[in-house]
Amino acid sequence: MSRFVMTLMIAVLPLVAIADDGQVQLVKHDDTVEVNINGAPFAVYNFSQELPKPFFSPIRSEDGAIVTRGLENPEDHKHHKGVWVSIDEVNGHRYWAERAKIQNVETKVLTAEGDPAVMQVVNHWLDQQGAPVLEETTTISIYPNRLMAYDIRFKAVADNVTFEDTKEGLFGIRLANTLREKEGGHVQNAEGLKGSSACWGKVSDWVDYYGPVNGKLYGAAIFDHPLNFRRSRYHVRNYGLFSISPFGPRAYTNGRRPADPVTVMKGKTLRLRYGLYIHNGTTESANVDKVYREYLKSAQDS
């Protein structure tokens, strides 16, 4: 079984504006951060220590439609909450399934208003005794066009940390029920493949998932980043789950590729970057490919 040992970090990159569509405002409260765009609600980050993990919910379109599934009485997969970062099989702990806890220890607003506005969270991924296995430091840049750029850094704190080969992760969104493919929604990737079955488990620069809410079309596109340590694969389902992860080459290919666990040595850091673009309309009318390329420009190495 091969191991990929992560021993270095890429330098922090400068932020540049993606679109001149106004301003994003961040307002921090005791256990939430409200995200507004031009004064209207966009998203809420929930980081109470009572939660099994932090997450954004709800997420709204520019006209106020909620594109994430509600938190009350979900009919399946109760651990799919809004927009989140988690994964199973980290030194044997199942964070995705909420069998182990991800606890927020710090949430900072770095840029309270701007294009982008920027926040940073520090989360401890705990073992069953409550001790941290991983320290996650994630910087989230939010743009007026509803692009959320995630810069995730996982530091192994107590011992070496191994991410096993699994499909249950890593950066995900659970879409509103009316958007899901089995209710008439649509899935498409950068290569033009269509449908969740065709896009599931594939590598691609982006996958877009859109459908109706109250008679209008809305969608969410997830962007991979070419400077991640390897290509990620998409976990996209007809019931509204949509996520991306680099940790499951065997799981995502149904065994056609060998398992390739990733070990981060104690004290070292693994960096991953992804984008989430919330949009109105179809893949084409929302210019998903153009926004993806603008996202890349915002994270160029110096």
Which helices and strands, and how do they pair?
Blueprint: E1 4-6, E2 24-28, E3 32-37, E4 40-46, E5 55-59, E6 83-87, E7 102-111, E8 113-114, E9 117-126, E10 132-142, E11 147-156, E12 161-163, E13 169-174, E14 186-189, H1 196-199, E15 206-213, E16 216-223, E17 233-236, E18 241-245, E19 262-264, E20 269-280, H2 288-297
Parallel strand pairs: 1-19
Antiparallel strand pairs: 2-3, 2-8, 3-4, 4-5, 6-13, 7-9, 9-10, 10-11, 11-20, 12-19, 13-18, 14-15, 15-16, 16-20, 17-18
Q: How would you describe the overall organization of this protein?
A:
- By secondary structure, this protein is mainly beta.
- It has one domain (4-11, 18-297): Beta-galactosidase, Chain A, domain 5.
- The chain has 2 helices and 20 strands.
- It has helices at residues 196-199, 288-297, and strands at residues 4-6, 24-28, 32-37, 40-46, 55-59, 83-87, 102-111, 113-114, 117-126, 132-142, 147-156, 161-163, 169-174, 186-189, 206-213, 216-223, 233-236, 241-245, 262-264, 269-280.
- The strands form 4 sheets. An 8-stranded antiparallel beta sheet has the order 7-9-10-11-20-16-15-14, with helices on one face.
Core attributes:
5-stranded antiparallel β-sheet; 8-stranded antiparallel β-sheet; mainly beta; 302 residues; 5% helix; 20 strands; single chain; Beta-galactosidase, Chain A, domain 5
Number of domains: 1
Largest sheet: 8 strands, antiparallel
Could you tell me the radius of gyration in angstroms? 18 Å
Strand order of the largest sheet: 7-9-10-11-20-16-15-14
Poorly predicted spans? 1-17
Question: Topology as H/E string?
Answer: EEEEEEEEEEEEEEHEEEEEEH
In the CATH hierarchy, the third-tier topology is known as Beta-galactosidase, Chain A, domain 5
